[in-house]
Amino acid sequence: MEIITGVERRRRWRDEDKLWIVAEAEAPGAVLAAVARRHEVSRGQLFQWRRQVRRGELAAAPIVPEFMPVRVMAPPAIAAPCVEKRAAAAPGAGHEAASRLQSPPSSPGRIEIVLPDGTCVRVDDGVGLTALRRVMTVVRA
């Protein structure tokens, strides 16, 4: 609910809000007039936004990548293995898999990611972005 006091002015809609309302209006079974009424927008305005989306004039802002702080450290004389919390609970994880998880990074192209809860992920430079994103999503859950 929006309460307008004083002189009524034109509302400024963010692109994200416009896209959200257009998506709601184009959902199967949606009634355009009902969607417009629910968001207190005229049907003509909603038709204009739909036209802009179809022409490519109204689109979502590009996703800006976020960077994480990185700390480069000299390798210790004896590398302490990372303790993998989920390795013991994984069904079918053999002795070989557990020893591979606890081995210190040896190649220069390997990255070790240690999360605040102590979970450790080691990644070689050949891993794809999609695979790494899937792993990090599961580890954070």
Structure commentary:
This protein has helices at residues 15-25, 32-38, 43-55, 95-101, 129-140; strands at residues 111-114, 120-123. By secondary structure, the protein is mainly alpha-helical. It has a two-stranded antiparallel sheet. A hairpin with a 5-residue loop joins strand 1 and strand 2. Helix 1 crosses helix 3. Mean pLDDT is 75; it is low at 86-101.
Describe the protein's topology.
Elements: H1 15-25, H2 32-38, H3 43-55, H4 95-101, E1 111-114, E2 120-123, H5 129-140
Antiparallel strand pairs: 1-2
Helix pairs in contact: 1-3
Features:
single chain; 141 residues; mainly alpha; two-stranded antiparallel sheet; 2 strands
Overall pLDDT: 75
**Biggest sheet: strands side by side, in what order?**
1-2
Strand content: 5-15%
The ordered H/E elements are: HHHHEEH
Shape: elongated
What is the C-alpha radius of gyration, as a whole number of Å?
26 Å
The biggest sheet amounts to:
2 strands, antiparallel
Quantity of strands, as a count: 2
Helix-strand makeup class: mainly alpha
Percent of residues in helices = 25-40%
- The CA-CA distance between the termini, in Å, is 35 Å
Number of helices: 5
